[in-house]
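From: lab user (bench 3)
To: helpdesk
Subject: output format question, protein + iron/sulfur cluster

Hello, I'm new to running complex predictions and I'm not sure whether the block I got back is the full result or only part of it. Here's what I submitted:
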Amino acid sequence: MPGPRKRAPRKIAVIDPDRCFGALACSICQAACPVADCITEEPDENGRLVCAVRIDACIGCGLCVALGNATAPQPREFGCPADFDAIDLVAFEEVVQTMESAGTDGDASVGITEPAGA
Ligand code: SF4
Ligand code: SF4
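Helpdesk reply: Thanks, we reran it on our side. This is the complete output you should expect:
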């Protein structure tokens, strides 16, 4: 497993909670992710557990992104099922700006979660 991230990545993964099949029902993204505890289970606005990406942990490798998703940086063996295609890689600065304008440290509604223990 890679160690703690040393600098901000160019892009990070963002999960659309409306497209996520359900954290405990699927979890393929968690299996694909090489960073420990990077993708966590969070309740969406209806209390359904969906996956969300820790903004402080994601290295932007794209291994969780669905096959065929144009935002992924390289070929990979599996990721979010193409039927759901719930994960996009998004520019890190854009994610930070979205969270700031939403007035949140992150939650499942924006597909990003806050650092563990924050
Ligand atoms: S891009 Fe996806 S697989 Fe890679 S570190 Fe981020 S959440 Fe994990
Ligand atoms: S792989 Fe996709 S559908 Fe499955 S839990 Fe992760 S984000 Fe949700």
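A quick orientation on your result: Helices lie at 28-32, 92-102. Let us know if anything else is unclear.
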